[in-house]
Amino acid sequence: MLVPTQESLLLDVANVEALVQPVEELVASFPTDDPAQRLAALTGAFTQAILSDEALIRTGIRVYMDTWLANQRNGSHIPVRAGRRMRYIDEVLRPLGERLSEPGRSQLRSALAVILGTEAVIAMKDSAGLDDDEEIIATLQWAAGALLRTALHDYETSP
């Protein structure tokens, strides 16, 4: 059974951890309880962290994918990276309390996972052709906000 490679572990701990430290600090003490403001702040900070060292992030994706593929060939399904994203999303949504039904919260969490992170930045750059960091951040903030507004509209539970 393959586990994360030494290269993937070192990359994550030595480099990516330092890169996301400002995001960790934001998530640890959001300055507001407004979920929309929290989501915009997280999307901005997380995206900026990724954009600040794109070569490192793309190298990380390559290492994580190589490790994942090797694990698949050997029948292992051990996660190969930290998985911070869902923890960040849960903290953003925490002030919603019971405003969303469980199916609504679950679907929103999953949809936001597509908007936040490395894959979204790569899609903005490689597929959408955006090269301006501010435009990428603004676009991802808009998309995240649209998902939140839609979820609140579609899945908000009755008082």
How would you summarize the topology of this molecule?
Blueprint (H helix, E strand, L loop, with lengths): L5 H14 L1 H8 L6 H18 L1 H20 L10 H10 L8 H14 L2 H10 L5 H23 L4
Helix pairs in contact: 1-4, 2-3, 3-5, 3-8, 5-6, 6-8
Short description:
The chain has 159 residues and is mostly helical. The protein has 8 helices and no strands.
Domain count: the total is: 1
Quick one: how many beta strands? 0
Distance between the termini: 50 Å
Shape call: globular
The biggest sheet amounts to: none
Helical segment count: 8
Q: Residue-averaged pLDDT, rounded?
A: 87
Radius of gyration: 17 Å
**Beta-strand level of the residues, as a percent range?**
under 5%
Report the helical percentage.
over 70%
Low-confidence stretches: none
SSE order in H/E notation?
Answer: HHHHHHHH
Class from helix and strand fractions: mainly alpha
Overall description:
This protein is an all-alpha fold and 159 residues long. It has one domain (6-155). 74% of the residues lie in helices and 0% in strands. The chain contains eight helices and no strands. Helix 3 (35-52) packs antiparallel against helix 8 (133-155). The longest helix has 23 residues, at 133-155.
Structural descriptors:
single chain, mainly alpha
